[in-house]
Amino acid sequence: MASRVLQRVATGLHWRRAGLQANVPAAIAARGFSGLKSLFVRKVDPRKDAHSHLLSKKEDNNLYKIQCMYYGIISSTFITLNQSALMLTMNFEVLPSIHADPEYPCELVGTWNTWYGEQDQAVHLWRYRGGYPALTEVMNKLRQNKGFMNYRDERGKMLLSRRNQLLLEFSFWNEPVPRPGPNIYELRARAIEIRQQNQEAVGGFFSQIGSLYQVHHLWAYKDLETRDKIRNAAWHREGWDEVVYYTVPLIQHMESRIMIPMKTSPL
């Protein structure tokens, strides 16, 4: 089924390209330069609101931050066991303490280590209730938090690199909430409502600051076998093949990583 859909996509793109090449000379001859211009200039209806407001949950006004941190060799030396133990202790103490403190308008949605995909990586997902003002308030308070500043200094000694993105959540996804476990989590680049019927959908987000035009979808499965069964079952549902047919041409890059929650992760 999947291969047939991809063949349809490739065939459709081929004929669209061929049709455009064949029709442009005739259009130029018949209508002149203005005809050529009309072929390539699409009239866009003016909007009175940002696209992000049309896609996100305006009533909730949540802002998310995803942090991807890579640990490994720094300055030609390996992280020692003592350093690893210290980082684990601080992860288990500092981050949950911020999550539980009502003075900070933020929540640790989940924190994971990668299992498959990019290795030696920790992924943290934070939620700021109140949008950008809440983010600014948290940042200012953290600068006065000696425990967090010490954690940040020690973390910096062990990091190869780190990357942050600020995200908004799609209006058609449910807000990420804790669920019974244990589970494995998958971070992917696309999804659709059809795939939410088995309750595996955790959250859907799109980037606002950082690497732009990126979509993140978070899924939860009991194990890899369950993941495989659910994904295969999607092809037997009406409409899924059309979803793939129309979305594949829009994707420039897609990656997936399987993540294991840390013991202190709310998810």
UniProtKB/TrEMBL annotation:
Q: Which organism is it from?
A: Gambusia affinis
Q: Which Gene3D superfamilies match?
A: 3.30.70.100
According to the UniProt entry, where is the signal peptide? none
Pfam families the UniProt entry points to: NIPSNAP
Task: Supply the InterPro entries for this chain.
Answer: Dimeric_a/b-barrel, NIPSNAP, NipSnap_domain
Q: Where is the NIPSNAP domain?
A: 185-266
Give the record's family classification. Belongs to the NipSnap family.
Name the source's superkingdom. Eukaryota
GO BP term, example: mitophagy
GO cellular component term, pick one: mitochondrion
**This protein's name:** NIPSNAP domain-containing protein
